[in-house]
Amino acid sequence: MSGVTTQRGSLEGYKVCVIIPTYNNASTLGGVINDVAAFTPHILVVNDGSTDDTLAVAGQFPAIELVTYPKNRGKGWALRKAFARAVELGYQYAITIDSDGQHFAKDLPAFFEKLQTEPNAIIIGARNMDQASVPGKSSFGHAFSNFWFKVETGISAADTQSGYRLYPVALLKDTRFITRKYEFEIEVLVRAAWKGINITSVPVSVYYPPKEQRVTHFRPFKDFTRISILNTFLVLITFGYIKPRNFFRALFEKKKWKDFLEEQLFSTHYTDQNKAVSVAFGIFMGIVPIWGFQLVVAIALALLLRLNKILVIVAANISLPPMIPLIIFLSYKTGAWWMGDNAGSLIFSRSLTLASIQQNLRQYIYGSFTLAILAGSSAGLLTWIGLKLFKRKRVLNG
């Protein structure tokens, strides 16, 4: 009993409440509330438009805070309403636990302990997905969700689908979320990571009843489709805005560009071959004729190919506005090799644009890819030679 008392003291000090969103789980809700109450009296139940005896069950616990509305809106909406109410009541943190009995209140202390070392993080209760009782669709969804979360944030998370979590609601209060159903639990993680909030986890137990006793409100086709649409949207934002934003933030946070580039070129996290290929690929992407999409595609492929993203982005910026007329001119002239007697002529000037070469677009496209390959290969080779010479010089001076 002293352990529970200690945990209650921790809750009071950190201003933590426990949120229980519920929809038609009257048969299990009372047991979940009782179990949670053994650890804390700070309980907030959200009745998401239940049509069973949920309100009657909740009414047996007058000490809880109850948020209720008549129409079912979805788990994401219930959590958003709960977060807002928790902040109104002065809580800094909220732990969400499902009302169907899948989670165990005995794991609450793990969140309290983690909170003391990670006070500004979302803490996920990571389930053991290898046990035999886990449904096949849950295992697939678990792996699918973790993969896309890694793509969108660069963070490896143990269980992005677990609803057992601790949220720093005070840090999330100004975030305007767009989703209302199960996909909210993906959106909140990604949006929080983009804001710089740490994502961590603690192991928790999970109970999956036999199939014939299992009650779920997850609609496989509709909800999986909604999650897929959300992930598509988040990936576009990731590569169109978040990745470039983070890159330029990293640049401006560095005192000297020279130090920054040296850090990337001489980092031990990548081989010399990887660095050389990264520079070559960046130059290639900066020249190929996909203007407006070069950086987005470069970052996406750099992640896929496990290249040094910083070197790829730096090299791809060969296509900065002052360089564009020169790149277009050289691409057009290089394309003349392919066109033979049908080659067109072009005069170099600062006002040179893509519109200037519309009469012989094929010559420009052939030339741009050829120039991209030649320039990229040359830059990659020079980078590799430079790194080898630097290392040899450092050994000799050693």
Structural account:
This protein is of the alpha/beta class and 398 residues long. It has two domains: 2-240, Spore Coat Polysaccharide Biosynthesis Protein SpsA, Chain A (Alpha-Beta Complex); 255-397, no CATH class. Helix content is 55%, strand content 9%. It has 15 helices and seven strands. It has a seven-stranded mixed beta sheet, sandwiched between helices. α6 (136-153) packs parallel to α9. The radius of gyration is 28 Å and the shape is elongated. The model has no long low-confidence stretch (mean pLDDT 84).
List the helices and strands and how they pair.
Layout: H1 2-14, E1 16-22, H2 26-37, E2 43-48, H3 54-58, E3 65-69, H4 75-88, E4 93-96, H5 108-117, E5 121-126, H6 136-153, E6 165-167, H7 169-172, H8 184-194, E7 198-203, H9 220-253, H10 257-265, H11 272-287, H12 294-305, H13 309-316, H14 324-339, H15 361-397
Parallel strand pairs: 1-2, 1-4, 2-3, 5-7
Antiparallel strand pairs: 4-6, 5-6
Helix pairs in contact: 6-8, 6-9, 8-9, 9-12, 11-12, 11-13, 11-15, 12-13, 14-15
